[in-house]
Every structure is written in C-alpha cells, then in structure tokens.
Amino acid sequence: MKDRESGGYMKIYSGFSIYGTDILVEKSLLKKQRIFLMSLLLNNSL
Question: In this model, does residue 30 exceed pLDDT 90?
Fold first, then answer.
C-alpha cells in the first residue's frame, strides 16, 4: 500500500488520512483482489 501526499504522516498523527491510499497489486492477481476488496466494501456497508 502507498499513501498519497502526506497521508502516511497524517495516519500516524491522527489515525486517518484525507488523501487516501493506493493498493498495489500484481497484474496476475488483479481480478481476485478486486473481488476481495468489493466483498469487504459490501460487508462493511450493511
């Protein structure tokens, strides 16, 4: 994972970042990881 802007410092200081985080995934695993992340989002929104 890679924080945008000064997001890493903000997470340490305040516990979250307004800039977001990029998740880096190998191309061969992209489809599986997309499904996994979507299932996390769906389960957390209920």
Answer: yes
